Amino acid sequence: MGQTQQTGNCEEIDVKSLQDMYKKFVLECPSGVLFLHEFKRFFGVDPTGEASDYAENMFRAFDKNGDNTIDFLEFVAALNLVFRGDLEHKLRWSFKVYDKDGNGYVDRNELRSIIDSIYRIKKFSKKDMNEPSLSVDEVVERILDAVDFDRDGHITLEEFVKGAQQDSWVLNMLRLDMNPAGWVLEQNRRKSANF
Question: What structural domains and CATH numbers belong to the chain?
Fold first, then answer.
């Protein structure tokens, strides 16, 4: 009763887990803000490990006001989206992860950088390793072909959302970004398993 909440994407949020995260946030960040190195430590990410680049991109997407810190309100807003957001909102959030320089579009280099991070994480976690896979460059080309509707070499937010909604393969390639909650929970499980 009141301990879990069913969300639209069929994941349950455990209230105790959220309370524990708040306590951990306050304990590790008495100043009330998370810096990048604290964000990585908070989620058990090795600063030089396979998930480091991805964590940096997530940090940037969580940092709504661009001050290079995440305060608790930004943290809660991001968690709310991660756990409860609909597909379009999650795609919009994912776009922020891909748009590394914040200029409003994703170019080939930004796309390649994120796809490469995703591949390294999947290889490290042994996910999808039995499936034949495309190279990073092949994935980048296929995504650009599917979503760069005006063929200008840049993916706008609208193209990103529409393309992912219309092409199940593209949406599947974004799965790691579309499920940052799962990534966060897996990082926490790994950290707990190492103790």
Answer: 14-84 (1.10.238.10), 87-126+133-181 (1.10.238.10)
